[in-house]
Amino acid sequence: MRIFTKKLPHPDLPAEEKAQLLQNSEYQERVVESTFLYLTLDLPTAPLYKDEKEQLIIPQVPLFSILAKFNGSTEKEYKTYKENFLKRFQLTRLPPYLIFCIKRFTKNNFFVEKNPTIVNFPITNVDLREYLSEEVQAAHAHTTYDLIANIVHDGKPSEGSYRIHVLHHGTGKWYELQDLQVTDILPQMITLSEAYIQIWKRREEDETNQQGA
Fold first, then answer.
1. Residue ranges of the USP domain (predicted)?
2. pTM score
3. Which pLDDT score is estimated for 48?
């Protein structure tokens, strides 16, 4: 991927001093090329609303909203102990398999918090062409992915459990695995889970969709 980084002046500085600093080379945008093992997808802050019956409503977000991090134009601020940066990302190459890590856990000085936001995603036909830079789009004949595995975290961060949804390639059926238990599961049920890690397989031209979607 291509990573664009711009250093920001300290927010407490006077406006004139900020303007002067932004003219320095240290504060100009820099671009680096980097390999990646997986893509980290950031969830929005999850406010838990209550309905008329005072029951919590868990927020939802579309997969393509959090994938926008890699469209080359979406900027996000990153803070370190001393400095702040604006970063944006753009994919320059799509591998045969993609791993998404949905960032559900954040750690502060006292404990780990979990974001319960549900990510709405299709099981098949996720096209990532728009996240490629224009100059490399022509080199990618195939940019559509199908989900083949979905790891779910249930419960609290400190005492939760994991389930895995896997696609049986030969039959096109989905199964849920938890410890030694294996059960059938409908594809539409997978999208209701608190997905944590996903594995996607790039669809080649001669492949047929065995999932009927």
1. 1-203
2. 0.85
3. 66
